[in-house]
Prior knowledge:
The chain is α/β, with parallel strands linked by helices.
Amino acid sequence: MVPLSDAQAHYLFGVMRLGVGAVLSLFNGHDGEWDGAVVQAGKRAGLLCVQGQTAPLIAPPDLWLLFAPVKKARTDVIVEKAVELGVARIVPVLTDYTNAERLRADKMQAHVIEAAEQCGATHLPEVAAPQKLALVLADWPAGRDLWFCDEARRGSPAGAQALPGPGAVLVGPEGGFSPAERAHLATKPFATGISLGPRILRAETAAIAALTLWQVTRGDWR
Ligand code: SAH
């Protein structure tokens, strides 16, 4: 039996107008997808009875998206597309030229759930608390490499290599990376500069392009 939160009950019974006996697809991020039948439907509460499993868990590759938050609507697009394209973790990073409105990691996590519901993903990437880029780089886990999407490399070959193992991509803010950040990244053996073609992409386009490139080169689209 799965008890529903106030918001879930409101959505299912108030907005979607479902009633007792309706069957829905359920997922919790760990156990795949299951059918569940409504057994109690109230205004602020409800109960579902879990029936059979309808799909296994499909975990994305061990890929992190690091991105500098931009304006809210565009940040939402980045989070949504990352879930659709398949990432394990989303890390908002504050860079020298990041110019974002106040960030709410809980809102971003809620957005992850909505995006997963839309696209039938059974896995929910974790949204990390926003952190300064320098701290993320200082605390970098062994064995994970980083594709640094560097607008200064535009026009050169992409430089995407099919390395094995866990990875990450880093996309900068509207203002791009500062010379100090570029120099700092150059000292990190785990970081490789990547070009995304000859044109300057908006941050959300760059995130989509970089994740696509990663998935095709070494992820679960091969
Ligand atoms: N204002 C900057 C562009 C920033 S674009 C300038 O005029 O140079 C936002 C981010 O998208 C960049 O920091 C980079 O991470 C990524 N990006 C955009 N176009 C790119 C390209 N052609 N190659 C690699 N990364 C790119």
